[in-house]
Amino acid sequence: WPPYGNCYWIIIGGWGGYMTGIRKCETGKIPTAEDKYPKGPCGTLRSQKNHTNERVLDTSKWSHFTIRRTDNNILFYKVGDQNPMLNYTDEETSSFETKKIVVVSRKKIPGYWRVHDYDYSTTNKVFSEKIVGEEISTREKTFCASFFVAMCSKCRLTLEVLYFDGTVADYLPINQITISSKGDRLWQEERITAPLLGISAKVRLRASGACDECKNPFWSVDYFELCSENEIRVLTADSLDLTEVSCEVIKTSLQVSYTGLDNESPRESTCSNGRFGKACFSCSEIFGPNKFNCDKSTICEIEESSQNVCRCAKGYTGYACEDPCPHNTYGFKCQETCGYCSYPPCNIVTGYCSLSACLHGFGDPQCKLPPSPILQYPPVVLIINHTSIVVQLLNVSYDGNAVPIFYKIQYKTISQTEWNNSENIDFRDQLPFQIKHLEVLTSYLIRAVLITADNSSFEGVIVPYVNVTTTCEYIQMDRISIQTFNESALITFVSGEGSCPASLYRLGIDNQIITSNMLEFEILRLKPYRNYTARLFSIISDEFQLMLGFQTQEGAPERVDKLNASPIDESTLEISWNLPLVPNGRIRHYEVSYEHINYLGCYPDAKIPNNSSRRTLRESSNVTRLLNVIPYSQYRITVVPYTIMSGESATIDVDTLPSAMPNEAEVPSIKTIESQNTSIRIYMNRPHCTMIRGLLDYYVTFHCLNSWCPTQSPSTLNLTSISSNEPIALTDLLSYSNYTVSIDVGRKNGRMSKTTGMVAVVRTEPSVPNPIKDIVIFSKDESSISFRFLPPYPPTGILAEIFVSYCHEKPSRWSTTTVCESSYIPLQECTLWPSYLCITLKNLIVRTAYELEVRAKNIGTLFNQPTRIFATTVQEAPEAPQNVSAAWDDYYNLTLSWSHPSITNGPLTGFFIKIYAHNGICLEQSIAITEREYQLSYQYVVLVNDSCYASKLDIYVHSFNIMFSPGLHLTQSSPPKTPNIRPEPAISAIANDTVSVDIQGVSNLEDTVQMFIFVSSDSDEGPNQQIYPSELWRKAKIPRDLTTWMVADLNITTLKTSTKIFVIGDDRKSTSLHLQIEIHNKPLLASTNYVFTILIISAFDGLKRHNVYTLNATTIGSKMEEGSANYGLFALLLLLLVPVIWIGIW
Fold it and tell me: Which residues cross the membrane (predicted)?
């Protein structure tokens, strides 16, 4: 501040609020903070207005002012005033361009300002979707347009914001408002806003005017400009000190043109009663909304509503009727328009022009008498056709003094500036006149201009005219062609003379309305292969309507429905799908393509495809099978339906099944083996992931080979799909043990063995020995303790040494002290107890209790936990011998066996044996031994008195040092005496088929005796020897090369009650008493050598003794009956056979 440049300084309500003036200032002359008053000519008022009655500005209401500049003339009005408040003509300047408007409020009083250019446009015809103004470029996030509108009481104005940002094909509506009238001819301010994206875009405004049952419709729009959210500027200042002023420079608003309306009307002809000025403001808008009284009105009337209506007298208006009629008006309610006065305005009461000076030759005091006659009424329209209009002068009343001789018909469109003229027509000839070659659906202004004899006429704007719009011929079906595509259709009109333009029609289809300015309608976004019905209708007539049916062509089908893929086996996939939900035609075939996208044995993100497996099939049905796919892989299946064109593809990924059995290429091998004390880890060399055809099941069998292993049966571990870096872990194993590990692989459908590289023998590492168990103190005396134990079991390594600590309590006069000693003792096996370790602690204190702790360690390990035992150095008796047993041989020798006593408690000096029977002592015997003769087991043969045979014996065995141990008792039966036959058996008689044996001495046998008699021969045949127990053959000592059979099985009862002569060969049959087999004492053969064996067995409590007697005999020859004719021949044969037999025996 101050602004640079020349300016006109208008002060409103200055000088205490009672004067308004204008100054002309040059650059630098407007006062600054240092200058309280303007400088030079800038301080001169060029025009001023004193406000004697009231201040021109009031904080309680809005004040409306108009600045009008024409060339170098500046007029400043208060809206509603007829005369300007300021009228200044700058004689020094002919014309200039307004650059800026600067508004400042003074005296620290807030001022609210709205600055705008205004003028309004009006129309009295219904209009639809008129583009208002030019295209507007903007980058704002909000669009705002402000305007004043006045219209008839039943009229509506619809305003749309159209938006275009380059991402769509055309302008799109983003907001719409519909405005209804608030009273006939009442101006109202409206605005429309719409959200934008804040990017470079273009905006246009589109307006439509509608009215229901309107007789005189009209729409007027004023002050159409872009607005902001808050248009009011608040400015304060203190006197002329402008240093603290928050001053804003308000640029001229960007006005939106409204060329879409019918015409511009700077006149106030459309203001309603009670409104005035170029903006048609009401008194309440000027003086505030609370002043509704009419005290100063000059006329009051009572209308039909029975309400008092106050009106002003002629020539005056305003809320208090204090204002004269606005410019160019006069009369009651200021409804009359002044004539063509040369010096306007006219008288506000009478309408007379000043000095009766008229323009354009008009006469009379009001300058309303035209110089040439003017018809009072326009021509009457008789016929309206598509391209012609027939009019006629029916009322020829006219104003003016001259007599018309001719007239001519003039017509033009609203947009034309020049009138079209007909030929002069005789005023007396008032026949209908046809105006030809007009445009269809076009509004024409038609009037008649009167012509006098001197060929003069008046063609001013006051000549009455009629507004007529031509019609058009609606299209018929035979002039419509429909061309269809798969997603669109083109409807074309064949135009003729008088045909309605395409812009007259609307095409309704699927809830959308389509417009066109050409002779064709393009319908987009249709579905292929569908039946459609479109409704063609007119926007100006509800009577016209055509229904157009058509079917779109086949298009690309949508994707198939419910695509599914499932494996049938390891190399087959079954693909199925349903028809597309929207086929868009007839499906002719499907294209099924599949490709290998990954091996499932590889990592999911590896994506290693097998590009050679891509295939494409053509299928007519909706199911197919894909053969020879790679097992354990991922495939991508794509199905494309086809009509006359390819459709949308549907894709699904599917995993094939693993192969039933692994092949050699995918079987791993052992890479490395890591052994720890209780576990084994086996790392595998696995094949490349592309070789894997399924998850491998690992069947791991591991078997502990050592004798201490808890079980001899192998253990198994089954694993599935371990990762490439993860080893096979065998846990909970025994330390220092050999394991054989074999690995088989397979799948759920079977196991496959790999013979090379899949078997290994591994030893686990040593660990701390297990605790020592079962320590036995096997000897002690008054100065030493000897104990034995088995090495820790199972072994966990190679035992290295033993650590023994032994403690005893040493009493003193006042307390007891624990005294401990320890020693590392090398390993030493026991002499008597193999695999046991024996330790002797010597030089101990007599009769002292010791606590011993024994530990062991393996090579490379720590000592194990101690095992505690307690012992006292005192002499005690040894334990009895262990495991005493007795056995008899066939010669009545009794062999006694026993084990060395487990605990001897000092050097053992011998053993003592006692044997008792029911009838007395059978044996007492002492056996002395030395330490060198110590054995783990002892065996001695003793002879028992024969009086103790066939008896129950009690056997006691004692061990002793200086004391005897308890005797170990054993009960043992003694065998019976050997059975004898006295006298011995003898042959008492021989026949040709029998031999008699004398067994008289059987009376001396035991009651339990058994007797078996066998017959042996090298020429006779007997039963199979295998039916007899081998024990009998062994005891009878029968040669195996002879044929032998049993002929008798006798017990003592049978022998004692029967005859003592037994006949061999008497052909008797019996059942063996002991063997439960059949015995046949078959006849012997004549002249045959036989060996007879008698086996006698005596038994007592399972112990047996036996004796064998052997007899030899030869049967005699056969005797022939006397008188037989063949007797001599038989004897001859016998003589011939005998040498043969002897030769065979010998």
Answer: 1084-1103, 1124-1145
Tokens of 818: 């624990």
* DSSP result, 169-228: SS-EEEEEEEEE-SSTT--EEEEEEEE--SSSEEEEEEEEEEESS-SS--EEEEEEEE--
Classify residue 363 by its DSSP letter. B
The tokens for 842 are 């010597």
CATH class of 776-873: mainly beta
Q: Which residues in the chain show pLDDT less than 50?
A: 1-4, 229-309, 755, 1119-1146
Give the distance from CA 429 to its chain's centroid.
93
Question: Residue 746 CA to chain centroid, in angstroms?
Answer: 32
DSSP 358: B
- Dist. CA 477–CA 499, nearest whole Å: 13
Residue 198 has a pLDDT of 61
Residue carrying structure tokens 């002797």: 840
Residue-level pLDDT at 911? 93
Task: Kindly list the distances between the CA atom of residue 430 and the CA atoms of 391, 403, 411, 452, 468, in Å, as whole numbers in the listed order.
Answer: 10, 16, 17, 16, 20
Residue 257's pLDDT is 39
Per-residue pLDDT, 751: 65
**pTM confidence score:** 0.41
- Which letter does DSSP use for residue 238 in this model? B
pLDDT of residue 124: 79
User: pLDDT value at position 661?
Assistant: 85
Which CATH number applies to 121-231?
2.60.120.200
Residue 829 is given by DSSP the state B
In whole angstroms, give the CA distance from residue 143 to residue 739. Answer: 88
Spatial neighbors of 1042 by CB under 8 A, at least 6 apart, are: 1016, 1017, 1018, 1091
DSSP codes of every residue in 13-38: EETTTTEEEEEEE-TTTS--SS-SS-
The reply to whether 121-231 and 980-1115 are identical in fold is no
Angle at the Cα of 1114 (from 1110 to 1118), degrees rounded to 5? 150
- Name the phi and psi angles at 204, rounded to 5: -135, 160
Return the pLDDT at 295: 36
Cα dihedral 335/338/343/344 (nearest 10): 20
Is the CATH code 2.160.10.10 the one for domain 564-656?
Answer: no
The tokens for 184 are 């006939």
User: In whole angstroms, what is the distance from residue 103 CA to residue 111 CA?
Assistant: 9
Q: Among residues 373, 344, 337, 372, which one has the least CA distance to residue 358?
A: 344
Residue spans of the domains in the chain: they are: 7-89, 121-231, 374-470, 477-551, 564-656, 664-763, 776-873, 980-1115
In angstroms, the CA 1013 to CA 1036 distance is: 10
Q: What is the pLDDT of residues 63-90, one digit of tens each?
A: 778 787 777 888 888 866 778 889 988 8
Give me the architecture of the 374-470 domain, per CATH.
Sandwich (2.60)
Q: Measured between alpha carbons, how far is 465 from 376 in angstroms, rounded to an integer?
A: 10
CA distances from 850 to 845, 869, 978 (A): 9, 8, 60
What distance in Å separates the CA atoms of residue 965 and residue 934, rounded to the nearest whole number?
A: 17
Do 151 and 182 contact (CB within 8 A), yes or no?
A: no
- Residue 282: which H helix or E strand, with range? strand 281-282
* Pairing mode of beta strands 465-469, 443-452: antiparallel
Q: Could you tell me the CATH superfamily of domain 980-1115?
A: Immunoglobulins (2.60.40.10)
- The residues that bridge with 426 in the sheet, in sequence order, are 406
Q: Which residue has the tokens 């018309």?
A: 404
Q: Which CATH class is domain 664-763?
A: mainly beta
pLDDT recorded at residue 130: 86
Q: Are 638 and 597 in contact, with CB atoms under 8 Å apart?
A: no
CATH number for the domain whose boundaries are 477-551: 2.60.40.10
Q: What is the DSSP letter of 366?
A: T
Predicted confidence (pLDDT) per residue in 606-649, tens digit? 778 877 778 899 999 999 999 999 999 999 999 999 999 999 99
Question: How far is it, in rounded angstroms, from Cα 690 to Cα 683?
Answer: 20
DSSP code of residue 947: G
